[in-house]
Amino acid sequence: MPNRAVHPRARSIFKARTKKPNFVLSVAATTIRLSFVLALCAALALLGAVVGIAKAFVDTAPTLDLAALDAFFSAQQQPCVITIQRKGKTLDINLPAP
């Protein structure tokens, strides 16, 4: 049986590396990559916390009673007078009924 093992790089257009990579640059690149992954994980955790708190707030909020709200605003149909006092001066503001 003949040996048909052909070197995998025999026909490559690229040349094999002969130098070791720069240690400082490889440490910096790895640090940046890990920082990015850590920031992404922290952002996803924060997003999950915000969504969880919002869901809990919506689930526990009481239902809105529109009849009571309408009764409150219809009782406010009288004119409103606002009095502002500053430095001994008084300002009365008369707001018409809505």
Instruction: Give the oligomeric state of the chains in this entry, treating copies of one chain as homo and distinct chains as hetero.
Output: single chain
- Unreliable stretches, pLDDT < 50, 5 or more residues? none
User: In one word, what is the shape?
Assistant: elongated
Number of strands: 2
Q: Helical amount among residues, as a percent range? A: 40-55%
The average pLDDT score comes to: 83
Major sheet: size, sense and barrel closure?
A: 2 strands, antiparallel
Rounded radius of gyration (Å): 36 Å
Strands of the widest sheet, in order across it, are 1-2
Beta content comes to: 5-15%
Structural class determined from secondary elements: alpha+beta
Count the helices. How many?
A: 2
Order of helices and strands: HHEE
Distance between the termini: 101 Å
Tag the structure with descriptive keywords.
alpha+beta, elongated, 98 residues, 2 strands, two-stranded antiparallel sheet
What's this model, at a glance?
48% of the residues lie in helices and 14% in strands.
